[in-house]
Fold this sequence. Notes:
Radius of gyration: 14 Å
Order of helices and strands: EEEHHHHHH
Mean pLDDT: 93
Oligomer: single chain
Amino acid sequence: MILVSKYLVPKGYLGFAVFPFMFLKRKGLKENTVLINHEKIHLTQQLELLIIPFFMVYTIEFFFRLLQYRNWQLAYLNISFEREAYGNEKDLNYLKKRPFGNFIMYFKK
C-alpha cells in the first residue's frame, strides 16, 4: 500500500518502506517505477528477515558504516540493503528472479 506524506518522509529522501507500507514524499512519485521498485526490494528484504530483525540489522550496519566512512551519505549508500536496492532498482524484473537472502551478497562487499 502506497501512502503519500511530505511530513513523514525525511528531508533528502523521496520515500521509504515499512512493511506493508510504502511512504512517498509526493503523489507524482507513484509513477516513478524505479523508486517503487527500489522500495519493493526493501519490502522483500523486510519480509525475509521477519521485519523487526531487518530494522535491527539495518540500524546496526548503518552505525558500523558511519564509523567506517565518517560520512552520513556514504554510510547510508553502503548499507547492504541499500546496495542491493540501488544496484537493482532499474531492473523491473529483479524481484521475480531474486534468490532468497540475496542481500547477504551485498553485505560482504
